[in-house]
Amino acid sequence: MDAVLGADPGLRMVMREWPVFGEGSVFAARAALASRKQGRYADFHRALMSQKPRAERASVLRVARSMGLDTQQLQRDMGGPEIAQHIQQSNALAEAMGLVGTPTFIAGSDSRFGAISSTELAELVAASRGN
Fold first, then answer.
1. Which end of the chain, N or C, is less surrounded by CB atoms within 10 Å?
2. Alpha carbon of residue 114 to chain centroid
3. pLDDT, averaged across the chain
4. What's the pLDDT score for residue 51?
5. Which of the four pLDDT bands, split at 50, 70 and 90, describes residue 118?
């Protein structure tokens, strides 16, 4: 994603937290969204995504601590109504669009499920623009 975004200054990326792997995934999504209040969303999200085992409460909090996040504040912020609303909206969007899982990359009215290369992502964007 970074390569495609860096090569195309007119491209806008929107990320949605859509937890689909159970309770640990929901905890991780809520924590990632709450990390916005500490100004660390992008870094925290990437750190969580780089974990090999699926997320669980202990591993999410361990990553947060390792990054210097205030984990007490993070956990308080996770209960905010905007966090629940984001996840509910992600679920509704995914259902309406017929998405099957994460990651899903969407450009225009087309989407690709699963890991894709920067070339494939650039082609998806170009196709959505009619290039």
1. C
2. 13
3. 93
4. 84
5. very high
| Cα–Cα distances in angstroms (integers) from residue 24 to residues 31, 56, 63, 90, in the given order | 10, 4, 14, 17
Structure confidence at residue 43 as a pLDDT band (50, 70, 90): very high
* CA-wise closest residue to 1 among 31, 45, 64: 45
The residue behind tokens 């991780």 is 28
List the structure tokens of 86.
């984001």
For 55, the token pair is 């997320």
- The dihedral formed by the CA atoms of 54, 57, 58 and 61, expressed in degrees to the nearest 10: 110
Torsion angle, CA of 58/63/68/74, rounded to 10 degrees?
-50
Model confidence at 131: pLDDT above 80: no
Q: Which two tokens stand for residue 42?
A: 């992008």
- Residue 102: what are its φ and ψ, rounded to 5°? -115, 150
Report CA-CA distances (Å) from 46 to 6, 89, 124. 17, 22, 22
